[in-house]
Design a protein that fits this description.
This protein has about 400 residues and is α/β, with parallel strands linked by helices. The protein has three domains: about 140 residues, 3-Layer(aba) Sandwich (Rossmann fold), CATH 3.40.50; about 35 residues, no CATH class; about 190 residues, Rossmann fold (3-Layer(aba) Sandwich). The protein is about 30% helix and about 20% strand. A six-stranded parallel beta sheet has the order 12-13-11-10-16-17, with helices on both faces. Strand 16, helix 10 and strand 17 form a beta-alpha-beta unit. About 5% of the residues have low confidence.
Length: about 400
């Protein structure tokens, strides 16, 4: 596929919002650019679903909070029956909210905050932002998503459940209220003996490491990839997301709740362990170093100086230590960070993969390695997860030591 493929114009847009004021503002914003056609307006989800079949829009601008049928329910129906690139409109669309990540998991490709329509941004800049999101969304391919098969990350968290354990020495029964626990052991309440908790984790060998790089637009991709992975494949996943630390921290909590992998916010001095997914923000200057037979992260806060590329740095560090037992992956992003890191992994005979450009909201991050190394350009998130898992399982009988 040609990643510079031109869009078909005009891009047809359906606006779905119960506020006539916001619909009018959107009409004014979108009419400033040639190549855009508003083919319809709906005031609730039920109206929208009927109009989608007749109008076949290229992009849907969908309000989250509406009467009759809200945006989340509408989105789920859309992604089952008529998958269409959808941008959510909401006052709750800050990247740190669980509801935002729910929408991305269920198929939304991006967000526009309603607040920016009325304050905090000049008109020209806001129009440019909205139009850029619309054109990026129109170039994407979206597939059917069945919400019944999605792991739920909001409400009752799937991972938080009780488990009963027994002390091998005295037989005392104890209840662990959050499983799996963050601690490796606890003391018996009766005899004081140490009780090992994470027995299964000891067999998840540190055999392989995959480093994933993504921009802010890569959250949706990660939400489709990591929950597909089986921690029994061994090894670890390291992810750098070029976004603010507070957003990344909220995302870590959400992703951990819907994944079998243990998802951890990366910290300085943390030991690389099998069955874990470590996530860092773009502000983190991260390298992997050998320490006492293991590998540990060294993390320093970056000052966002010119020329600082955190994905490149982490990939190059992992490649030099693990050579053929490392893989690199690039997802959606507006930055070229990751290009040199993928080069380093290839030079050490590791494996490299990129998400298909048609599944990237922004294609710049993946385009360089895709062209330079003639990588497959047809990997959606599910196929990409399968490739990652195959690399790990192929090396499962090996153990990496520093």
């Amino acid at each position: 596929m040609n990643i510079n493929e031109k869009l078909e114009y005009p891009v047809k847009i359906l606006i779905v919002d119960d506020s006539w004021v916001l619909r009018r503002v959107l009409r004014g914003t979108l009419s400033q650019k040639d190549g855009v056609e508003i083919v319809g307006e709906a005031t609730n989800g039920i109206e929208a679903l009927g109009m989608v079949l007749n109008l076949e829009p290229d992009v849907i601008l969908l309000d989250m909070e509406m009467p009759v049928m809200d945006g989340m329910t509408t989105l789920q129906h859309l992604m089952i029956h008529t998958p269409t690139p959808t941008i959510l409109l909401s006052s709750l669309s800050k990247n740190g909210t669980a509801r935002c990540f729910d929408a991305l998991k269920y198929g939304a490709v991006d967000f526009v905050s309603k607040n920016t329509f009325f304050k905090g941004m000049d008109g020209a800049a806001h129009s440019k932002l909205v139009l850029s999101k619309v054109f990026a969304a129109a170039a994407m391919s979206v597939h059917s998503i069945d919400p019944m098969q999605q792991k739920n990350g909001s409400g009752a968290l799937r991972k938080i459940r009780e488990k009963v354990i027994f002390c091998e020495d005295c037989g005392n029964r104890q209840v662990v209220t959050k499983w799996p626990p963050k601690e490796n052991s606890l003391k018996c309440g009766r005899c004081g003996d140490e009780i090992s908790l994470l027995t299964n984790k000891r067999y998840r060998r540190m055999n392989f490491v995959t480093v994933i790089g993504a921009g802010e637009s890569g959250y949706a991709n990660i939400l489709k990839i990591i929950p597909e992975l089986n921690p029994e494949m061994g090894g670890a996943i390291c992810i750098t997301i070029l976004d603010r630390p507070e957003n990344v921290e909220s995302f870590v909590q959400y992703l951990d709740a819907i994944s079998d992998f243990e998802v951890i916010l990366g910290e300085d001095g943390a030991t690389l362990e099998g069955g874990c997914c470590y996530i860092f923000s773009g502000n983190d200057n991260v390298t992997l170093s050998p320490y006492s037979g293991n590998f540990c992260f060294q993390v320093q806060q970056s000052r966002e100086a010119d020329g600082f590329f955190p994905i490149n740095q982490l990939m190059a560090s992992v490649a030099s230590l693990l050579t053929t037992r490392a893989s690199g992956v690039l997802l959606s992003g507006t930055d070229s960070d990751g290009n040199d890191g993928m080069d380093a992994i290839m030079q050490w005979n590791g494996s490299c993969f990129v998400l298909s450009p048609t599944h990237c909201l922004h294609r710049k991050m993946a385009s360089g390695p895709l062209l330079r190394h003639s990588l497959h350009d047809d990997l959606d998130e599910i196929r990409l997860a399968a490739r990652i898992q195959k690399c790990h399982f192929a090396n499962k009988e090996n153990v990496i030591t520093a």
